């Protein structure tokens, strides 16, 4: 709730005014009654700043029994984390609900709306009472349906949360039925009026004014029946804004523009200070003395001048934000625009031109979460160079989607020269999206040959992504003869990446025979992906025998990739016996990779006994890496006497300490303590004299 102005005759400046009930209070009462009957219910109070939304919610829940609790999360992330712990008989309080659902592209807002829908639906979670407050323009944004099918509908879950609900209580008969208000009690959004002009409400106000000085002063001085706005300091804030000195007015105008353009409520002092010259003029700013600047900050932030209510720019100091800086004469790190001026900004400053200084200040000082909304606003305003700077800053803070906003940003002649070196630097550090955008921008501003030269220069130094982009342009007939010459030069020099990429391009054009030839050249140079593609193309062409023969030659020469692919091909052709005979011959010839392929096949086929047999054959053939698996397989089958021999052989042959330890454990289990301790000591790195082994 907003602070209340100090009124003459009030005993206590902190006392709340007498509460005046209006039509929305009756609807809230019915929501509370539903909750008390065991139904989950929801109400979102929509009204302008300082109309009494929060106070109405507070008054409504006073009638809840003592077993109800209040939970008021501070953010969407906190709400998501704690919502699963919320028990029945809880009021979920979302003040300024837009801050929970409009999360600047973060998934937390839509996820929270979806989870709240689920909580309100489930009987086992009931009763839950969800209360929130929201300004009308935020409500309109959340309720809006995307104009194009291609647009992301990020507020779909929130729209479901805000729609009308038909409660089970509405269908009851007898004393439990909510007579006469069935339709309205199902409305999730309850409007709160701006004024107190209804005849019955006016009579309540006049009665309250007889004993409450707050109401008495508001009734006498407020305009158009806007009494709560007056008591919240609205009149004083408007007066301070209207008669503000030049620098102070500039700070407030900058804050109002930043809020309406998408910045969060906490405005960095450095941002406001950097934007100020754009609102009062550089010449006037340069003539300001230190005392005048200090006075401007004091004017906008001193609550004493607003009769205790929040000033136009209230000081806040979020944790970990540091100090404003030596060149900023503010006394706080961040400021918050009063709700009244925040609301007014969207009306009185809607058609004001935003000075260039604000966009530049935002690029340097805006909070990270505000960069994308501000960039979008600059784009809408036609400030394309400023929008680009803001998108650049967003990318630097991890918003990769902003790169594609740069790609599609109009007015490239205004920002390309400044932005292209940055895009190229990001591309050269490995950002593939930045490379794509850089090439697109260069080509769109008539620098196609420069783009091609940059790509091929990088490709020739081994940048595979640049090579792919260059080949893509060639394949799309978007590159010149120089690009073709450089590709052919790289292939002639045996660049396997160039060969593979060219082969991909030829295959995409249907030139399969030419593609196969290039895949083979790349595979012969050791490209494992090209090897697979070469074999796949041969198989598709019905040349399986040729593929198997080539793979055998490659695997016999020690190509492990070719060995694995040949096994896959033989399995796919059903040549199981021939494959196993070939692998067994490879193992006998000392190729342990062949054993790995055979074991993988046995695993897939569930042939455990075959695995043990092949491990033993490999061990006998001299493959020491097979010794331990043989012992483990025997131990797993309870054949511990055989396992003991294999573990001992492994330990002696390979000095394997795990094998030593397992020898010791088996001997301990058999009561051969002295011999066991010898092996256990060896496994721990302790030498000792070997005891006589028992037979």
UniProtKB/TrEMBL annotation:
InterPro entries: TPR-like_helical_dom_sf. This is Tetratricopeptide repeat protein. The lineage of its organism: Bacteria, Bacillati, Actinomycetota, Actinomycetes, Kitasatosporales.
